[in-house]
Write a structure and sequence with these properties.
Elements (H helix, E strand, L loop, with lengths): L2 H14 L27 H11 L11 H12 L10 E6 L8 E7 L15 E3 L4 E4 L3 E8 L12 E9 L8 H22 L19
Antiparallel strand pairs: 1-2, 2-6, 3-4, 4-5, 5-6
Helix pairs in contact: 2-4, 3-4
Length: 215
Amino acid sequence: MTRALKGAAAGLAVCFSVTACGGDETPEPERVMASQQCDGTLSPEAARALETVLNTKKFDDAPTGGLERTTDELVHDYPESWRRTPRHSLCRASPATGSDAVKIDFRLHREADLPGDEHAADMHAYDMGVEALSGPRMAELYVRCVSPRIDGSGDRPARIRGGLTFLRSKLPDTVLIREANLTILHSAALAVVRKLGCENDAGLTEKPVFRPKRE
């Protein structure tokens, strides 16, 4: 191979090793702030709550697409909602350093799956949605949705359960932690029901209201 050909081959190798040779494409910015986690579904209050429970302001780079994927899967699952359907992951938020993580998922549930008074001692009931529970290790939020995207939900509303869990939590069982966890989950759930087009936001208010429920 001549020197000229070798030079051209080297140039092509360099060109193919980057995203674009002509400069038309630019790499996506890192999504490492709390507000960018969970596909951008977190309100400013929820983003601050996430920083609190994971004790960080910088996170692993967050993927996108979780909100659309999750809502599409809930619509798809509705005909099978007479049984417990699979959980669909909206996101996993992980600190840039550290081993803990917060995971948020959604699924359809049966009426019999509502926890009622049967829940762990460190889970506390709140008057939010159909039912809401929060503790130091997890939170749950149940809502009912009537949506034009979900055929049949006018007669039988879709029963949606949102869940927040920690990979490994050592947080104390305090009011601050319980409300922080439920703030995060409420914000994600509100984004899900709005993406689904649920009537009246499936009964969720713009901001969470922390009214302990009598048991």
